[in-house]
Amino acid sequence: MTASTSAQMTCIPLDGPFEAEIRAIDLAVPMEAETFDAIRHAFHQHAVLLFRDQDLTPAQHIAFSRRFGALEEHVQIQFPLPGHPEVFIVSNKSADNKPVGATNCELCWRSDHSYHALPNLGSLFHAREVPEVGGETLLPTCTRPMKSCSPCMIFAAW
Fold first, then answer.
1. What is the Cα–Cα distance from 73 to 91, expressed in whole angstroms?
2. Most buried one in 5, 6, 52, 131, CB count within 10 A?
């Protein structure tokens, strides 16, 4: 197994206001510190990163996620991945007339716990199955609006 290096990796800004795609990286293989530092820098610059065509086991997903910091188990305890409580299942499928994951999450789900006084850094999603058409995810950011506010206005908001 060859380690992924930042020399192979590219970061391509996407059409949205703050997201980018990371190409030529395999998150399932060991990663040099320099490579992860480049990913962390891209995350801080763009806020949302897309890694296409990744074939990760739950353990590999968790290991990569932990490089960003400690993981938190989701407050909704009914849909963790068995054996991996750090992985929360979101799905529109059912088995035996029971949902296999949290459903209708677009209506109320806050993946980053932004309602906490000190929210999480973010969330790492691994889509196992996506529709050919539709399925878009809305990803709002408050960074740009906050940067346009005066310090007094920001202080008043707190």
1. 17
2. 6
- Partner residues linked to 49 by β-bridges: 20
Q: Residue 88 is encoded by which pair of tokens?
A: 């929360």
Q: Both tokens of residue 96?
A: 């035996």
Measured CA to CA in angstroms, residue 48 lies from 51, 52, 154 at distances of 10, 13, 24
Amino acid found at 104 = N
CA distance 49 to 18: 9
Tokens of 50: 């897309």
* Structure tokens, 29: 């293989």
pLDDT digits (tens, 9 = 90+) for 24-80: 999 999 899 999 999 999 999 988 999 999 999 999 999 999 999 988 888 778 888
pTM (2 d.p.): 0.79
Q: Which residues contact 2 (CB under 8 A, 6 or more apart)?
A: 29
